[in-house]
Amino acid sequence: MSAVTTRSSAASPENVPPVPDRVGLSVTVRNGLQLTWRSIVKLRTNPEEVLGLMLQPIMFVTLFVFVFGQAMMGDWQTYRDFLMPGIIAQSVIFATMGTGFTLSQDVEKGIFDRFRSLPIARSAPLIGAVLGDLVRYAITVVMVLLVGLAIGFRPDGGAVGVVVAGALILVFAFALCWMSAFVGMLARTPMAVQSFAMILLFPLTFGSSAFVAPDDMPGWLAPIAANNPVTHVVDAMRGLMLGGDVTGPVTWTLVWAFAITAVFFPLAVWAYRRRT
Amino acid sequence: MTDAIRAEGLVKVFKGRRALDGVDLTARAGAVLGVLGPNGSGKTTTVRILATLLRPDGGRAFVDGFDVAEQPHEVRRRIGLTGQYAAVDAELTGTQNLVLIARLLGFDRARARSRAAELLERFGLSDAGGRAAKTYSGGMRRRLDLAASLVGRPSLLYLDEPTTGLDPHSRNELWDVVRDLVGDGVTVLLTTQYLEEADQLADDIMVLDHGRVISRGTPEELKNRAGDQVLELRTVDPSQLPLAVKIVETVTSAPVGDDGLRLGVPVGDAAVLPEVVRRLDEQGVAVGELSLRRPSLDEVFLALTGRTAEASPSDEETNEETRA
């Protein structure tokens, strides 16, 4: 008896499709999309998470607008309009933390070992996680926007401005999620990812033009905030949604997104290969 | 006859510690190879190397003739892996878990669904197929995990401590499944800490300790070496124990261990029992308790190495290891 006959007796070929001899680009794309499906399906089977995605924007928008609005700008309506682009950006940027968190969880639970023992594209789990999260970010954008619309936010930029602003923050989030993936693959536990990401993301978002104009910040902080990449994204989104300068901040946003991706995509892939 | 797995001189070093220190291994096609050892002995590291998850620092390993380090894709086409912990996605339902893997392996939608249904049925999970795996019991999760590793009908299955933490009922169920698979012609590599499990399932056993193979053979041969059973004896008067030790040693001509209260000795043949009783009686030793039981892994180790098995403290590292 040889191993070959053993194999054919165990496998009934009519039931099992042949596994390709090598993993080419088309297989990589297919596997990546299949694992994207996985992370999207999880949203459906996890009502708690969807609820979180929905309730958090309601909470943040209402709290910021009604608690700080009057104190910041005299009346809450003016602050609402100033805040909306900022809070959309903040929500999505915080959501990028989830990418590293889930990746770390998959490693910890041995799910990546299962994937890696299969004859599939090695990068597919990483691609799937990132693409699936882009869907999650898009849901976040829509949710925050809906809450804003419900309390009277009527952007002058119209539908086109809003959609382009939404696309811009997704591009920026796509860049950031490689950073998140990198952290996720380096940290030993998902909890460590979370605490590290918080320390990183809080100053990044709050030290930007998202909630307060940098001009109103103390002298030492103002220049830092003004050059914070998040400030460029938020300014670009404000320009697109409310009117104002667009070209400058959009260019800066794309430059930053490219730079962050250029640094953290290779790092994330390196850490992923090292860990898995 | 081709060997399903052949490994020579496998070495793996984690942070200066030699997790594997020259392991040779052969698994006959269609048979069950049991890898027996305590925590930290290198079982998981061995499986991870053979499953292409880890590159060896030395030595070579071949699965169906393919080098695990050089031709991982070929190896992955042939293997199924079920780890120590159930590596299924807890958020997905049983069906979704299996469909996902089937789709990844290139099944079309309809065939993926039917393959998932077929496996759920086979593992008694049909009713639970629509529920998220996080609602499953430990035994159900292991069965789903095993089903997941069988989607692509591997000819070689790695089971890394498949029953650790399972209750006896679930454990027996899993054993039956493994026997079925072997009946289908699948080659199985099983790691376990339980001598009984290796005895129940394996055709060949190798015993690992500190990254080295310290013994190998059939379960019969191993038991002959380690004693089929253990005789345990307590004297009513502890001061008579040394005398009892001497008597038992003479009868069994095996090293007798004692802890000051009771003695224990591996016995190859239960027929020595009447002889032991007779001699003790002759010498006036009052026996408080006398029993025969199967040896524990510790006792096998004692018999094979002259010392007890100790779990290496750095066993955690097997999960933290990185790919060079």
User: Helix proportion of residues of chain A, in percent?
Assistant: over 70%
Q: Strand portion of chain B, in percent?
A: 25-35%
Oligomeric description of these chains: heterodimer
Can you identify the CATH class of the largest domain in chain B?
Alpha Beta
Uncertain segments of chain A are 1-13
Number of helices of chain B: 12
Sheet/helix structural class of chain A: mainly alpha
Q: In terms of structural class, how would the helical and strand content of chain B be classed?
A: alpha/beta
Fraction in helix of chain B: 25-40%
Q: Give the name of the CATH architecture of the largest domain in chain B.
A: 3-Layer(aba) Sandwich
Terminal Cα span of chain B: 34 Å
Annotation, overall tally of beta strands of chain B: 14
CATH topology of the largest domain in chain B: Rossmann fold
| Shape type of chain B | elongated
| H/E element order of chain A | HHHHHHHHHHHH
Please, could you describe this protein's structure?
Chain A: Belongs to the ABC-2 integral membrane protein family. Chain A: It holds the Pfam family ABC2_membrane. Chain A: It is found in: Cell membrane; Membrane. Chain A: One of its GO terms (biological process) is response to antibiotic. The complex is a heterodimer of chains A (276) and B (324). Chain A has twelve helices and no strands. Chain A is mainly α. Chain A has one domain. In chain A, helix 3 packs across helix 7, helix 4 packs parallel to helix 8 and helix 4 crosses helix 11. By secondary structure, chain B is an alpha/beta fold. Chain B has two domains: 221 residues, Rossmann fold, CATH 3.40.50; 65 residues, Alpha-Beta Plaits (2-Layer Sandwich). Chain B starts with a strand and ends with a helix. The C terminus of chain B is likely disordered. The chains are: A mainly alpha (276), B alpha/beta (324). Chains A and B meet through helix 1, helix 2, helix 6 and helix 12 of A and strand 6 and helix 3 of B.
